[in-house]
C-alpha cells in the first residue's frame, strides 16, 4: 500500500474503531441511567451524535496529525486484516448512513412532487401552507433543506380557525428549530449505535422531545393558545384513528401516549425554559481531548502501528 | 364506434396510485387539457392546443398515458379519441393518498424526512381521546368562568 492509501485506510479504521467504542459507551450509559434523565431535544440529539461526531473529531484532530507527524512520508507498508476489517466497517457504516438519509429524503421529495401541482396554497399567520385534498389527516413539515408545511383539507375543516393557527404555529416551530435537518443528521449518523436498541430509543425520545418543545414554542404561556392546540391534537388524532386500515397497520404503539402526554402537558402551566449545560460540557470535553492528545501523538502512533501490523 | 379494451387489467386509479410523480410535465399538461375539454379528443384536436409540438410527439404522449391506465381510447373514424378515466380530483386525490400512506408508513420507522403533528393512532384509542377531550373542555369552561 502506498502512503496515501495506508493513510486513508488508517483514518477509516480509526473512525470505525472509535465510533464502535463510543457507540458501545453511549449504549451502556443509556442503560445505566441516562434514559431516566429528563433531557431536551438538543441534548438527546447531542448524545445520539457522540459516536459519529466524536469519532470523526478524534480521527481528524488526533489520529491524523499523530500519523502525519510520526510516520515517514515515503514509507509504504501492507495493512493487517484487523485494519482492513475496521476500515471496511467504517466505510460500510458511512454507506448505510448515506443510504438511509437518501431514502428518507427521496420519500419526502416523492411526496412533495406528487403534491406539487395539486396543492392549494393558504397563508396562516404569514406562513405558507400547502393544502392537499386527501382523506388522510396529514399535517406535517415535509422535506429536509427546503421543508414545507403540508396539511390536508380535512384537518382544516375539522379545526376551528384558532386551532389551525396553533397547528401552523407548531409546525413553524419545527421549521425554525430545523428539526427535519436534525432528523437527516440522525439518519445519516454512520455508527454502530444505529443498530443498537439504545440508538432506536434515543431517536424515539428525540422525536417526542422535539414535539413537546414545538408545542411549547408555538403556544408559550398563553392558556387560550395551549387549549386550542390541545384540542387540535385530539381532533387530528381522532381523524387518524378513523382512517383506512393500511395506515393503522403501521401504527406505533407509543403514538397515543405521545398525544396524551402532549395534551396533558398543554393543559398544565408552561414550563420555564431550562438552561442546557450538556452541550457546553460536550464542546469543552472535545476541546480538552484535542489539547490532551497533543503530547500523546507518539503513543497514538504506536497504537496505529500495532493496529496496522495486527494479524499480518 | 368501437371501444377498445385497455392494455392492462388494473384500473386507472390503482395504476396511478403509485404517484403522480410518474407523469412527466408534458403528460400532465395534456391530461389537464383533456380534463378541461371534458370530452374525448383525437391527437389532431390536442395538437390544436400545442401547436409547437409535433403530431408524433403528442401521439406518443397520449399513447403513454393510455398505457399507464390514465386515459381510455376509442376509435373515432380512423383515429383514436382519448379521454381521462376519471375526474381530476379523484385521480389526483388517490395519487396523493398513495404517497401519504407510504410516507406515514415510512415516518414510523424514521424512513422519511418529515415531522407529523400527530403520529399514527390506532382505532382502539378512542376512549382515551374522549377522556382527553373532556379535560380540554373542562379547562375551557374554567377559563371562561375566570374571564367573566
Q: Assess the beta-strand content of chain B as a share of residues.
A: 5-15%
Largest sheet of chain B: 3 strands, antiparallel
CATH class type of chain B: Mainly Alpha
How are the strands of the largest sheet of chain B arranged?
Answer: 1-3-2
Q: How many E-type strands of chain A?
A: 4
Number of domains of chain A: 1
The span between the termini of chain A is 13 Å
Named CATH architecture of chain B:
Orthogonal Bundle
What is the distance, rounded to the nearest whole angstrom, between the alpha carbons of the first and last residues of chain B?
Answer: 74 Å
- The radius of gyration of chain B is 24 Å
Based on the structure, what is the oligomeric state of the protein chains?
heterodimer
**Number of alpha- plus pi-helical segments of chain B:** 6
Q: Using CB atoms under 8 Å apart, which protein chain pair has the greatest interface? A: A-B, 74 and 46 residues
Query: How many beta-strand runs of chain B?
Result: 4
**Which class do the helix and strand fractions of chain B yield?**
mainly alpha
Q: Runs of chain A with pLDDT <50, length 5+?
A: 244-257
- The whole-number mean of residue pLDDT values of chain A reads 82
Q: Which secondary-structure class do the elements of chain A indicate?
A: alpha+beta
In short:
The complex is a heterodimer of chains A (312) and B (148). Chain A has 312 residues and is α+β, with helices and mostly antiparallel strands.
Structure description:
Chain A contains 12 helices and 4 strands. With 312 residues, chain A is α+β, with helices and mostly antiparallel strands. Chain A has one domain. The radius of gyration of chain A is 24 Å and the shape is elongated. The two termini of chain A are 13 Å apart. The model of chain A is unreliable at 244-257 (pLDDT under 50). A 3-stranded antiparallel beta sheet of chain B has the order 1-3-2. Residues 1-21 and 120-124 of chain B have low confidence and may be disordered. The chains are: A alpha+beta (312), B mainly alpha (148). Chains A and B meet through α3, β3, α5, α6 and α7 of A and α5, β4 and α6 of B. β3 of chain A pairs antiparallel with β4 (114-116) of chain B.
